[in-house]
Amino acid sequence: MSGTSADGVDVAIGEIEGRGLDMTARLVHHEQHPYSEDLRRAIHAIRERGEAKLSELARCAREISLHYAVAVRQALALANLTASDLAAVAAHGQTLFHDPPNTIQWLDPALLAAEVGCQVISDFRRADCAAGGQGAPLVPFADYILFRDATKHRVLLNVGGIANLTYLPAAGSIDQLVAFDTGPGNCVSDWLCREMDPQGPGFDADGARARRGQVLSEICDRFLGHPYFDAAPPKSTDGPAMIAAFQQAMAGREYPLNDLLATAAWLTATTIAVACGNHAESHSIDLIASGGGTRNKAIMAQLASAFPPDTRICTTSEFNIPADAKEAIAFALLGAATLDGVPANVPSCTGARRAVVLGSITA
């Protein structure tokens, strides 16, 4: 998995048993492999411009695929496994553009298959889009398998570049799930760091700068007026759209970086909390978070303040799935469903007309 933050590849090697909704998954090994600085800059440039030369796209696909291959080979070596131990590599690809029904998850699956030495399942969104869906979110299928509970309402929250949630009602069926993108995760914060501190790491490490800033209410009011937040799910968005909305909310004025980062963290937490209040049980839920945003202490502190005191807020690490590995293990489950010919989109979440088998297999 490489998310919209475009900081690198998360590899989860999973041992999966069963079929369909009866699958179980055990995490064997998790490895993170950062993108090179040149590749990271190239991806962000394409996403922010919304266009690229053909030569740039071709080079980017090759570099992304080679980074994927190195990440998988490193994970296999550290787990004392070889490619022959794998049924397949389920690879999401790098999101370059997402505005349903148009979406691009960039990867060369043939190159990845050749470099790793086993078949690759990729391009998971397109079949759902062809069936009239958003192509996102796709992880509710895995969330239901891994986290459903007979007595507890749970919300699975992923805070990547974009934040998204899956609401799992207690003892509910998969057709009762609600899932959608709530709005920005880390994308606005990361963009601010790239733009205003170009010599820095490109992100607000641990949310330290946001915690030193003040929330700018005038920006919050303008940002929350964006029509996306009033739209009913199914819905999905992308980093460039949320960054553009934040730029518009800044209204051409200059502000201290720390205050902008504090504002971005507040908006991430607030849009998550409002989404939960509108579309999920707002009391007595387990809010189970994952993604890089869980390391941002400003976001997590704002989340704790935004939810009722009886909300249990934790991470997937408490369920033996590291917060950085959860999305990758979800795609392992989606890949297993593809190999079994089992539909793995959830139409109530994506808006598709029917359930479909996701992904393409490259030998």
Overview of this protein structure:
This protein is α/β, with parallel strands linked by helices and 363 residues long. The protein is 40% helix and 20% strand.
Number of helices: 13
Order of helices and strands: EEHHEEEHEHHEEEHHHHHEHEHHE
Q: Main β-sheet, in a few words? A: 5 strands, mixed
Rounded to an integer in angstroms, the radius of gyration calculated over CA atoms is 19 Å
Helix-strand makeup class: alpha/beta
Q: Could you give the distance between the termini?
A: 19 Å
Beta-strand segment tally: 12
Low-pLDDT residue spans: none
> Into which percent range does the helicity of residues fall?
25-40%
Spatial ordering of strands, largest sheet:
9-8-7-10-11
- Look at the structure and give the mean pLDDT: 96
What coarse outline follows from CA principal-axis ratios? Answer: globular
- Oligomer description: single chain
Strand content: 15-25%
Write the layout of secondary structure elements.
Layout: E1 8-17, E2 24-34, H1 37-49, H2 54-78, E3 89-90, E4 94-99, E5 102-106, H3 109-116, E6 120-122, H4 126-130, H5 140-147, E7 153-159, E8 162-168, E9 178-184, H6 187-196, H7 208-211, H8 217-224, H9 239-250, H10 257-279, E10 285-290, H11 297-306, E11 312-315, H12 326-340, H13 347-350, E12 360-362
Parallel strand pairs: 3-6, 7-10, 10-11
Antiparallel strand pairs: 1-2, 4-5, 6-12, 7-8, 8-9
Outline of this structure?
The protein has 363 residues and is α/β, with parallel strands linked by helices. It has helices at residues 37-49, 54-78, 109-116, 126-130, 140-147, 187-196, 208-211, 217-224, 239-250, 257-279, 297-306, 326-340, 347-350, and strands spanning 8-17, 24-34, 89-90, 94-99, 102-106, 120-122, 153-159, 162-168, 178-184, 285-290, 312-315, 360-362.
